[in-house]
Amino acid sequence: MSDPAYSPITVSTGGRHARECGDTIDAKPYPQGSGRHRSWRRGYERVDGEAEATLGPDTLGDDA
Hints:
Layout lengths: L7 H13 L14 H11 L19
């Protein structure tokens, strides 16, 4: 069972929260190229109101 703290939706929400707090995209907490990095960045860049369901299996990567 995967850790819910690292689900794609949770990680993506963290990216959105970082943007809302005024953090730069360089503040990303996950390694470049990892699935979690892609999820975080997607959340950071996502337009407000987009459905969380837009996260696909490609967001998990090998480190999920």
